[in-house]
Write a structure and sequence with these properties.
The protein is an alpha+beta fold. It has 5 helices and 4 strands, in the order αβαββαβαα. A 4-stranded antiparallel β-sheet has the order 2-3-1-4, sandwiched between helices.
Length: 180
Amino acid sequence: MGVSFKGEEQNLQDILASRDQRVQIQQYFLERYKSSLISYKLNIPGPIKYSSLIKHIFDDGLLTAKNKLTEASVEIIDEKVLYKNSGPEYFAAFKGTTSLIKEITTVIEETHPLGRLFDFDILDLEGNQLSRQQIGREPRKCLMCEKNAFECGRSRNHSVDELIDYIEKIALTYFNGKSI
């Protein structure tokens, strides 16, 4: 593992506290704006969830999503970005159909060079998460081997170190020549 993944290690309590905070923010947005919600974070394995490289990956995904939403004339009502040791997160209440937003973010996840690291959850007015299957898409694929990501992760086909090395390699290749 290279220097790109140096940061404060997160333990299970940190991850669970972050998840609880994410749910609270999601509930706040849903209740306040009575609209659907984008909740975006990254899929980063291991105990390091925030570093300079991770921030650049996150920011690139966020910029891509905001550009695509603008192109589709989706109006963002309010948004919040958090940069924290448990991983960066973004929340946005928006005007638009939930399935359209899910389609846009799924295309980003499937086509962007770093897209498999992006995790865009789209919640409807009741807080239910829209799945890929609900818009006619296949489940997420593993970052490294193209198998079903959930099944691959559950069976631990790849070590955390292998995954981190792979992420670092693809991210540094992607950002080559760009200031990070």
